[in-house]
From TrEMBL:
This is AzlD domain-containing protein. Signal peptide: none annotated. It comes from Veillonella absiana. It comes from the Bacteria. Keywords: Membrane, Transmembrane, Transmembrane helix. InterPro entries: Brnchd-chn_aa_trnsp_AzlD. The chain crosses the membrane at residues 6-28, 40-58, 64-82, 89-107. The keyword Endoplasmic reticulum does not apply. Pfam families: AzlD.
């Protein structure tokens, strides 16, 4: 990929992202009430996405061979505990990821 192609690709990604972010302000201006279904999706999607990410992250875990999924289990438990304790998604996900990397690289 040439430099010009990379610049065009990045520009297209930026333009697409900005359009999808700004369109909601035109579709749902401040003086107009958001439909109940859209409000429901705003509350349900984050939980659904996190659930899909957990399933995707754990789908290839082999529990019948060493280390029997222990790094994954320990990391999921630690992520859950940190999230319930601090209620910070960035801290819990970041901490769980770092812990998992340490467990996989140094311990198991």
């Amino acid at each position: 990929m040439t430099s010009m192609e990379m610049a065009i690709t990045i520009g297209a990604i930026v333009l697409g992202t900005m359009c999808t972010r700004l369109i909601s302000f035109f579709v749902f201006p401040n003086d107009r009430k958001v439909p109940k279904f859209v409000a429901f999706l705003g509350k349900a999607f984050p939980i659904a996405v996190i659930g899909m990410l957990v399933v995707y992250a754990l789908k290839d875990t082999v529990i019948l061979a060493y280390p029997h999924g222990l790094p994954e289990l320990i990391s999921v438990v630690a992520t859950t505990i940190v999230h319930l304790w601090r209620r910070s998604m960035m801290l819990s996900i970041g901490g769980g990821t770092v812990l998992y990397m340490i467990l996989v690289q140094a311990v198991f």
